[in-house]
Amino acid sequence: MNKIEHIGIAVADLKSSGSLYEKLLNTTIYKLEEVHSEGVKTAFLQTGPNKIELLEATSADSPIAKFIEKKGEGIHHIAFEVEDILAEMARLKNEGFILLSDEPKPGADNKLVCFVHPKSAGGVLVELVQSV
């Protein structure tokens, strides 16, 4: 794993949370995107080398809606950049981690992604991210 690629934050309202984080980080949202396969709208902000991804559910049965219902708004996941997502997935499986998919999926910001189940990662949802 190369570096922390971004921190994902689940929000109930992308517009109001986007304004809040723009003020907090003293920057602007540089990209809005909808990821239909995950039932989510995203907004990306960057300050220095650090990126924040705000995530709003687009349906009541999406993972983000379920997360907010159970835990409320807040940090949802931490994403790590990898050079070879397939190799990293194989390595983690070999180390005993539980992956939430057998193959990487297209994600936001033109990335391939795979999530590591929080039960096998100390309670933290970990996302592997590879640039396409």
UniProtKB/TrEMBL annotation:
Keywords recorded for this protein, A-Z: Isomerase, Metal-binding
Segments forming a coiled coil: none
GO molecular function per UniProt: methylmalonyl-CoA epimerase activity
VOC domain: residues covered: 3-131
EC number: 5.1.99.1
UniProt-listed Gene3D superfamilies: 2,3-Dihydroxybiphenyl 1,2-Dioxygenase, domain 1
UniProt KW Isomerase keyword: yes
CDD domains membership: MMCE
InterPro entries, A to Z: Glyas_Bleomycin-R_OHBP_Dase, MeMalonyl-CoA_epimerase, MMCE/EMCE_epimerase, VOC_core
Family: Belongs to the methylmalonyl-CoA epimerase family.
Protein's UniProt name: Methylmalonyl-CoA epimerase
Organism classification: Bacteria, Pseudomonadati, Bacteroidota, Sphingobacteriia, Sphingobacteriales
Encoding gene (name): mce
